[in-house]
Write a structure and sequence with these properties.
The chain is mostly helical and 230 residues long. The protein folds into two domains: 128 residues, no CATH class; 97 residues, no CATH class. It is 52% helix and 6% strand. It contains twelve helices and five strands. The strands form two sheets. A three-stranded antiparallel beta sheet has the order 3-5-4. Strands 1-2 form a two-stranded antiparallel ribbon.
């Protein structure tokens, strides 16, 4: 995470801070040297970021410790936001279109981050969402359509075998809407699993994800198409 009040930099800015040309930086890879400050990116991040104050201190032969504890102004990437929300990072990819998160996004080194306070506030509002009661059949969707992907992702995180009927009960959407969004999210997750494990078939990926045959049939073809198109 990017600690409150600190500045993080990517590789290009890191080279500038160390006074290196890009060619020299790529050849020397100074960030691999013993004692070089560790990246502040979350574990497993593809794009690495470093704390600028720590880098400058290292350049000058000093050490600079990062602040400890949690601050509402800490900037969290998708993995860290997912940990706060208790979901998988893929769910954050759906949630981030929600205006309650989208208006707080901060892009650092090409990586999206959100203030800890915004993530906590979103989590509180998300937890407050309850199933509609006494909703007549065919009365129309209760959850705004732009929020549906995130809600569907949350249901799948909790139960990979969730049915369209359960989504209708919890979210107040029509059966056709629930079926469509569940199929789309399952297909996207199956395709992602296939990309993560080359050679894995769609049906096997669905098994790995815990999708029983009764709820995955329509997603398999869509998943294969997604996989083939990427």
């Amino acid at each position: 995470m990017i600690r409150a009040g600190r500045t993080a930099v990517g590789r290009q800015e890191l080279a500038d801070a160390l006074g290196m040309t890009w060619h020299t930086f790529c050849r020397v890879k100074p960030y691999n040297a013993a004692g070089f400050p560790a990246p502040v990116s979350s574990e497993g991040a593809l794009v690495l970021l470093w704390d600028l104050e720590q880098v400058v201190a290292y350049r000058e032969g000093r050490r600079s410790a990062l602040p400890t504890g949690e601050d509402d102004a800490d900037l969290l990437d998708r993995r860290e936001a997912a940990a706060v929300l208790g979901v998988k990072p893929r769910s954050v990819d759906s949630y981030k279109t929600d205006p309650r998160l989208a208006r707080h996004v901060v892009v650092v080194g090409g990586v999206e981050h959100w203030p800890r306070a915004a993530v906590r506030a979103y989590d509180a509002a998300r937890g407050a969402m309850s199933a509609p009661s006494g909703r007549p059949k065919g009365s129309g969707d209760m959850v705004p359509r732009d929020l549906l992907p995130g809600c569907i992702a949350e249901l799948l995180d909790a139960n990979p075998a969730v049915t369209a009927a359960h989504a209708v009960d919890v979210l107040g959407v029509s059966t056709s809407t629930a079926q469509k969004h569940l199929q789309q999210e399952r297909a996207a997750r199956i395709a992602a699993q296939m990309h993560a494990e080359p050679g894995l078939g769609a049906a096997e990926a669905a098994d790995r994800l815990g999708y029983p045959p009764a709820v995955r049939r329509t997603a398999l073809k869509a998943a294969q198409q997604l996989y083939d198109n990427h």
